[in-house]
Amino acid sequence: MSASILQIARGKRMAYVTQSQPISSFPGLRSDFERLSWGLALCELVVGILPHEHPAAEEFSFVVRALHDLETHERPRVAFVWATTHLLDVAGFSPSFDACAVTGAEVQEARPFVSPHAGGYVVAGEAMRFTDRLQTTAEVIYGLAAIEGCESPPPKLKYTTETIRLLFQFWRAVVDRPLPAFEAALGLLLEPG
Question: Where are the beta strands (DSSP E) in the chain?
Answer without folding.
Answer: 3-10, 15-24, 113-115, 120-122, 134-135
